[in-house]
Design brief:
Elements: E1 7-8, E2 19-20, H1 27-35, H2 40-46, H3 52-65
Antiparallel strand pairs: 1-2
């Protein structure tokens, strides 16, 4: 899956932070729920407008954001 199809950015919405499909639920919100061990089924029940693919897109987006070199001063 390509997360770009589901993760949107709008400077007029949520301060330009990445959101899911133009809705006001941020990628960060979903990631925090997953980090708190909230099951995907519970997230989907609490947010019926989300789809399983949205959660997967959040994970893919987070993984891609971590894929950069960190340079340290010697």
């Amino acid at each position: 899956m390509k997360y770009a199809e589901r993760i949107t950015f709008d400077p007029e919405q949520c301060g330009g932070r990445p959101c899911i499909r133009g809705m006001r639920i941020r990628v960060k919100d979903v990631l925090e729920m997953l980090a708190a061990r909230v099951p995907e089924s519970e997230i989907l029940a609490d947010f019926p407008y989300l789809e399983s693919e949205d959660i997967q897109a959040c994970l893919e987006f987070a993984a891609s954001e971590m894929d950069h070199a960190i340079l340290r001063a010697a």
